[in-house]
Amino acid sequence: MPKRHNRKKELQKEIAKQRIQRLFLLAEHYALNGRLKLSDRYVFLARKISMKYLVPVPNQFKRRFCKHCYSYLLPSVTCRTRIHKGRIVTYCNNCKRYMRMPLQNRLVK
Question: What's the pTM value of the predicted model, to 2 decimals?
Fold first, then answer.
């Protein structure tokens, strides 16, 4: 019996990953069209799905929303992005807070 439950859980996690990806793509689409409230709602729903099914938000989408107010970040519209002392500094125009992420140095050999 546990195997059947495990398969069901894996299927639910796979569906959750697909939904999260779809919601972030919709958030990007509506943010580019100027509907920022709707894009923020899609980010909120994606995070809820992520927490409910214990699925991490994919790396490609982690930097696309504010870690403090969870609004969708669209450069030069809802956020300001700078490079300072080896870090990428993103300033959210909505909550007025900074997020700092290390800049990865890759040496070419």
Answer: 0.85
